[in-house]
Amino acid sequence: MYSEFYKLTGKPFQLTPDPNFYFDSSTHHKAMAYLSYGISQGEGFIIITGEIGSGKTTLVGRLLQSLDPAEFVTAKIVTSQLDADNILKMVAAAFGIDITVTDKAIMITEIEKFLRNNNRMGKTTLLLIDEAQNLTTQALEELRMLSNFQEGNKALLQSFLVGQPEFRDKWAFDPALEQLRQRVIATHHLSPMTAEETKEYIEHRLTLVDWKGNPEFSDDGHAEIYRYSGGVPRKLNTLCTRLLLFGAIEELEVIDADVVKEVLADMEEDNYAASASARLAQNSHIAANETNGINKTSANENNSLNISEEAIEEAKEAGLTASAELMKLRKRVVRLEKNIKIHDKTIKGTIDIVDDLLNA
Question: Quick one: CA dihedral 270, 275, 281, 287, positive or negative?
């Protein structure tokens, strides 16, 4: 909707990570430098951490996009709670290694064959683990064991671990990960963008979809956006999407502080409604389970959590749609009120003319 109104060629603030929209802020530039350094070293672990929504996945996607497939064989894993055996299965699957058995020794042997074959072809093998904070200590130790494979003095596998801040404490202080710590050659923690970088981030993304300055973001509008987002990319994307939607509905050419505050108020109402809907869905699910006499095993608890998360996403989508419809309705009411005022003035003027004629 807003893309058409503002004549944009795409959605500049979509929530799905897109490496084509990568913005090289100072903190992301440092992280990319560490990743590039790690690739040049060809060994060890590179660890990148950051808060939720700080742009870690987009950073990793940008790195993968920049690598020549003729020189690199890459795989990316987004982890959940994986144990030691499952991480090996995930690594094999990510690299396309066909393993039909569950024997750990056979899996390790097949992975080693794959790595040595890549090395013979002159290719570097890179493994990128996203959401690494979910890995167990045993799973991390298995990854460390894979890094032991060598051909002469050259390591056959290099791993990049990307995770949330709690992963920083895990790998740094867990006594069981001492050998992994000795293999870490570089680390970086993504920090939020500055106010100036936040403004540049918004304009960078808009420019990529042929933005011609409409809508204009005022200085006080940018300040209010930064106050809310704190320079966190995902928060910026969420807010700016709503701002463009609101701007298109209200036919605005300028997004100022008042507009930002109004949209933020709408978002707070939507979040409350989504939260209430999610709680209702979860409570209904729990009540249904109790009625049917279902035991609350760990598997059922996980299913309950998944349903709750789905309900949250559905509620958020419903909230966004409802918000758009409310904005449209508000606009129609404003126009109707204006028309009523015009009609009132016209009728009053007509009555005045008739009175003048009668009194003449």
Answer: negative
Residues 136 and 174 in one domain: yes
Range of the domain at 141: 26-190
Does pLDDT of 299 surpass 50?
A: no
Identity at 152, one-letter amino acid code: G
Letter for the amino acid at 164? Q
CA nearest 123: which of 144, 166, 154? 154
Considering the domain architecture, whether residues 40 and 149 belong to the same structural domain is answered as yes
Whether 206 contacts 217, CB under 8 Å: no
Q: Are 43 and 185 in contact (CB under 8 A)?
A: yes
Cβ-proximal residues to 63 (8 Å cutoff; 6+ apart), any chain: 32, 35, 36, 128, 160
Q: Which residue has the tokens 């003035």?
A: 345
What is the pLDDT, as a whole number, of residue 284?
Answer: 57
Domain containing residue 224: CATH number: 1.10.8.60
CA distance 296 to 303: 10
Number of folded domains in the chain? 2
Give the per-residue pLDDT at 248: 95
Q: How far apart are the first and last CA of the chain?
A: 57
Distance CA 260, CA 243 (A): 7
Q: Most distant CA pair in the chain: distance in Å?
A: 114
CB atoms closer than 10 angstroms to residue 233 = 27
pLDDT digits over 211-244, tens only?
Answer: 999 999 999 999 999 999 999 999 999 999 999 9
CATH number for the domain harbouring residue 41: 3.40.50.300
Model-wide pTM > 0.90: no
Encode pLDDT of 316-337 as tens digits: 555 555 555 555 555 555 555 5
Rounded percentage of the chain residues whose pLDDT exceeds 90: 59
Cα–Cα distance list, 37 to 31, 76, 184, 185 (Å): 10, 19, 12, 9
From CA 86, how far away is CA 72, in angstroms rounded?
Answer: 24
